[in-house]
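Recap from last week: sequence in, structure out.
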Amino acid sequence: MPLRIVRLGTPRAAGEGTRIGTVRRPPRGVPKAEFASRDYYDVWYPLLSPSADLMAQGQQVPPGQEGDKAWEAFAKQFRKELAQPEASRTLDLLAALSHHSAMSLGCYCEDEARCHRSVLRAELADRGADITD
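Predicted structure tokens:
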């Protein structure tokens, strides 16, 4: 039952399991009671989202090649945040659970390549997580 990395708000895949929202803020205009039924998330876990200041920096990254250097700076800083003990232990736990439980992690961003979930994917893979597309 591998872990999935998903875009929140998209239809769930069969067997996806518990959907974890790794976002700084809940979806706007959606009642809390409808987060799961609207395919956002079952559990909100902002610890695995970039800090508010870093998120603002990431949202300013220009698209395409002109933003590559800025994106790398964002990703490097986010990895530093994920290296903090609480986040690091959480990633270790999720990597271990990925071999036994169905679950998914996600964010709202359309393009995973320029979303913090791409960094989460890489960090989880480095920890031996079983990840599927």
